[in-house]
Amino acid sequence: MRIDLVTVLPDLVRSPLEHSILQRAQDKGLVEVHVHNLRDWGLGRYRQIDDAPYGGGGGMVLRPEPLFACIEALQDQLGQPYDEVIYLTPDGETLTQPLANALSLNENLLLIAGHYKGIDQRVRDTLVTREVSIGDYVLSGGELPALVLIDALARLIPGVIGDANSALSDSFQDGLLDFPSYTRPAEFRDMEVPAVLRSGDHGAILEWREVHRLDKTRTRRPDLLPPSDREESIE
Length: 235
Ligand code: SAM
What we know:
- The protein is α/β, with parallel strands linked by helices and 235 residues long.
- The chain has helices spanning 10-17, 20-27, 64-78, 97-103, 121-126, 143-154, 164-168, 202-220, and strands at 2-7, 32-37, 50-51, 61-62, 84-94, 108-113, 130-133, 187-188, 191-192.
- It is built from eight helices and nine strands.
- The mean pLDDT is 96.
């Protein structure tokens, strides 16, 4: 998967891309992330990228010309349309695991991180194909939301995570939350790891995990379950 990220703060996103899973995904050639500074397409001597909003009020708006020039140049370089041009915005479709799963199947994504009041509506109306929010709160810029999206997608690409089963049993993948995890030591400060997990009985372990996934989901996120499955907590 190739991801192009357009931002006014390229330095802000570099470090997270150079660590852990995201770095490994790029090292393995499974994900390519290219960061582009919108200011390179800024207007005039001062590389202007923003301006005051028509109609007045506070906050600046990212102007359309640099965004159009940047996106069209990247599109030309790619030699084909992006599968999706995604604007990260709090009024977009909320990012969920099913949306991440669907987007992870794309080959080429262009992400736009906004700033200030956001970007000129004409960019949204013509170039953007999808708008994604990472939750019902407002951050100062789209860089962190873009990184959240990139991480959520990268870990779903086959080969990025060593053990694919681990990602498949994560919360939300099949509508349930994840089961409780334990590691050594078997006893710590009078707290014991449940005996069944140490029994070597794979059937019993699977059953224990399913029971606890369902129970945790009932307790914490009953909204994820059909009404008929919301009762009967084991706690
Ligand atoms: N005026 C916008 C609104 O109320 O919908 C908020 C603009 S916000 C201060 C600046 C930028 O941060 C946005 O253009 C967007 O790229 C990004 N952003 C902030 N919160 C976000 C969220 N929850 N999800 C995705 N992007 C977000």
